[in-house]
Amino acid sequence: MTPKEEFLERFFASWSIRIGTVLLAILIILSIVIVLTYPIDFGKRIWNNPTYWADNPRLAPPTWLSLFTGAKVPEHTVIKLVQPTSVLVEENLRIVEYSAGIDYSYDDYPSFLHVLINDITFYSAKPPRVEIWMSRPDNLSVRLTSFTIRGPSAIEEPPYRRYVESPYRLILTEDLTPILNLVYSLNKKYYSDITMDEVSAIGSEKLFFGYPLRTGENRFSVLKGLYKFHVRVYIYEGKGSVGEVSFIVGGKTYGLLGTDVIGRDLMMGLLYGFPTSLMIGFMAATLVTIIGTTLGVLSGYLGGKTDIVIQRSSDIILNMPLLPILIFFTFIFREFGMRLFLIILVLTAFSWPGLVIIIRPMVMQIKSSQFIEAAISCGASRMWIMSRHILPNIAPFIIAQSIFLIPSAILAEAALSFLGLGDPTIPTWGQILEHGFRSGAIYLGYWWWIIPPGLMIVITTITFLLITIGLEPLLNPKLKAVV
Amino acid sequence: MIKTIILRSISLLLVAPAVLFLMSLTLGLTGVSDRILTSMAEQALQDVKKALAAQIHDPSALEAAIELQKLEIYSSYGLDKPWFYRMFQMIIRIACFDLGRTRVIKGFTGSQEISEIILERIPNTIVLVTVPLIFSAITGILIGVKIASNPGTFLDRFTTYLSIISYTLPSWWIGIILIIFFGFYLKILPIGGMYSIPPPPDISSRILDLIWHSILPFTTLVIVQIGGWIYSARMIVFNIAQEDYVSVARAKGLPEDIIRKRYILRIAAPTIVTNIVLGLAGSLGGAIITEIVFGWYGMGSLYYQAIISLEEGLIIALTYLYTLIYIFVRIILEIVYLVLDPRVRY
Description:
heterodimer; A: alpha+beta; 17 helices; 17% strand; elongated; B: mainly alpha; MetI-like fold; 14 helices
């Protein structure tokens, strides 16, 4: 068995290393997949852009929660129609219709109802008109609303295009006209007397997906069955088209990890945290290792004034309380941008002495051994001895130490983010936690917003800690044998 | 020994000027010190303006007098010169917490003087840092020593893994989980703050109320810290127990109790104290965030308020104060270390 094989065998003999390596492999693979699939400016363009999340339910718990409660809670449903269901051509008029059927069998009302219309093109001076209809399982058919698209301005040339960059968003459950029309039709059919003043107390979504009761506190009951929604666009002069129409029935639950207060899919943010945390950890650990090792070897081998200067300064920095110092520097430099890298730099600037203190005595011990003496007598330069004789001997130990630095860096960044000093352009787990905390998620019981990001931090830190702990017995005897 | 303690304390005390120097250098380079001094000078000018307006009634004469006063006040704050001329002055200011007034944040008594706001919070923080630290150190060491005497058993492995997990848990996350569980769902413990609103009138029930409110933050800090204690105590004791002289003592037939107390723990004590020293920085940091999570009226939650409302002066003062507290505790621990380890002579 070669020494390498023997080392590997001993390496994988320890359970903590086995578990740690498997976890690390998962973390790295996940991070690579996420870096490849997410856009580069995810933080700016998607995560911190409220309009991107406008069609998501807010503060919705995860979908799998309904498995435990038993009740059928409405799921988030998006129906996207790229092709019109029917096109009717009459002389100068072209009626493009988009219809969607939703089989509603849940025990609760949805959180909202949105209709999105994209990219309307027309050529006539008379702008197109849009009508939205709804037919319910109780045979009630209501024209919810109708409106006219903004007409061409004096300087515009046909074709006129509208809603290309961002869609026209009609929030049916908040808009006054559809609610008014619905209330009128419901009152007529069910002989009820709902007034507009009562709507906000009842909840407008109940008007759409329920029917009024004669008795009972809620006054409304969910109406199950097939709902149909129609969007009709009347385009004049026979030419023109509609790009896309979407119907969105806001769920009471969302995805694997739910949403936060502005409707962000927490799963996306959480996944994005993997590459960012690993990057923070690896970058900080690498920088600290380079600086700490260089200064430690110089201090231990050269001695004299170099040693005194390095020892005094590392002693002073080591005796500073890290978090307050980090808070101070991140806060003062916060306006300079690139805050994530700033955090890593500050972290590095105040973490290297720990490594120096550990390396220096080891270097001094090796320095006094005979093979160094032999090398000196052969005329080896100081650089040669430090890089070729001392560094390889302490390398395994340094590697173990730098693995240990990774979780500390991740935890430090998370702490700073939790204090509101995170980088607003790059979402991290700490920032998700902070946002949840600041929005009062704890006191309102939004556990899905708070517990998963913390758990991710813990899992990542444990991964590296397990590897360090497993390495300890492996490296110490080797080190003893050398020295 | 007195000499050693003094020498060690001096080298620790050097940290304070080093931090002051670094801070004022940064403040000067970034222009923050200009901002702070200008706002202090403007405040002083406002007072002078009022006094002048009462005396001088001619508008143009008043204008001239104010302009003269302004120059005088600005130069008294050193604002007529570049920042590096004022660096020493800035160092003194930070050291004395003389950083002017806050913009928004008020102290418990309504004061806006930075020094008053932070000084009234010190006791709350010290209680929150030290009590869980002492508790988890003592319990952790006892457990660690106990399991180290039977290494390799299920209990030993189980406790070791638990302590690793405890070490990695971020304090704020544990705090949040405890609040959600005990405060939100079970509703048996308060979700935050130090006293009920309104606070109970008499002293004894006030203290009980404080203890009631501190159960969760203390539990949080103990959960987070105790693992490190168990693990390090176990490792230290385990290593010493393998030494030859311990085997000799066993071979002599000494009772296990004496071996543990005189042969193992006496030797392990200084190393354990070193660990307390190293763990202290972590506990201080953990306490800052625990305070925020639990709305504890200490320096940590003041930090959070200061960051949110961008109170530079307060952040500078708090950072320096934390450094001072840290140095102070370190010196105490150095003394304990010297008492415990008769071999240490610098």
